[in-house]
């Protein structure tokens, strides 16, 4: 069985992430969305909330699941017996950082491959940070994130 891990912060999941997840689910037998537990970075949502939001949007895709992880991604990959990391690329500006990470990960474990998927053109401007910024200043985030999580984002921002 070919298992791939799609790692990230997902604070929160956007339609760009969801597009990559759906496309990856057609290429691999199983896709695990890996949410990084990063104690150094306080997000809008805590990791449990991010996992819950992702679960609410992927529950209709049978071969996709979500889990959190801490530490090195390659250790999580080994635990899950996964050999492929999925990354989304939106623009050339993503490339350098992602290129370095993929080289580091293959240095740490040469059995791990990183597979890059290009963001669909309609999502190439989308990021969790820009979604949060738009929502913070009262802008409309419809079409940027899955519809069902919009109320969660708005109420979280109101509670700050
Ligand atoms: O959504 P993000 O914040 O761009 O995701 C970054 C992520 C989680 C993919 C990356 O920070 C990561 O893999 N962190 C785990 C630590 C690790 O394995 N680092 C080794 C490569 S330098």
UniProtKB/TrEMBL annotation:
Pfam families: CTP_transf_like. Its EC number is 2.7.7.3. Substrate binds at residues 9, 41, 73, 87. It catalyses: (R)-4'-phosphopantetheine + ATP + H(+) = 3'-dephospho-CoA + diphosphate. GO terms for biological process: coenzyme A biosynthetic process. Its cofactor is Mg(2+). SUPFAM superfamilies: Nucleotidylyl transferase. Pathway: Cofactor biosynthesis; coenzyme A biosynthesis; CoA from (R)-pantothenate: step 4/5. The record marks 17 as: Transition state stabilizer. Keywords: ATP-binding, Coenzyme A biosynthesis, Cytoplasm, Magnesium, Nucleotide-binding, Nucleotidyltransferase, Transferase. Residues 5-133 form the Cytidyltransferase-like domain. Its main location: cytoplasm. GO terms for molecular function: ATP binding; pantetheine-phosphate adenylyltransferase activity. ATP binds at residues 9-10, 17, 88-90, 98, 123-129. It is found in: Cytoplasm. Belongs to the bacterial CoaD family. Reversibly transfers an adenylyl group from ATP to 4'-phosphopantetheine, yielding dephospho-CoA (dPCoA) and pyrophosphate. Homohexamer. This is Phosphopantetheine adenylyltransferase. It comes from Clostridium muellerianum.
């Amino acid at each position: 069985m070919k298992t791939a891990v799609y790692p990230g912060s997902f604070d929160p999941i956007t339609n760009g992430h969801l597009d990559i997840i759906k496309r990856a689910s057609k290429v691999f037998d199983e896709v695990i969305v890996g949410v990084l537990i990063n104690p150094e970075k306080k997000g809008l949502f805590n990791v449990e909330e991010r996992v819950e939001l992702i679960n609410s949007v992927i529950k209709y895709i049978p071969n996709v699941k979500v889990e959190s992880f801490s530490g090195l991604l390659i250790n999580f990959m080994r635990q899950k017996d996964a050999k492929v990391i999925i990354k989304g690329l939106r623009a050339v500006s993503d490339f350098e950082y992602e290129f370095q990470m993929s080289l580091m990960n293959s240095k740490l474990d040469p059995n791990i491959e990183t597979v890059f998927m290009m963001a669909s053109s309609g999502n190439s401007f989308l990021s969790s940070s820009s979604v949060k910024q738009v929502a913070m200043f009262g802008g409309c985030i419809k079409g940027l994130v899955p519809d069902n999580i919009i109320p969660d984002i708005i109420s979280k921002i109101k509670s700050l």
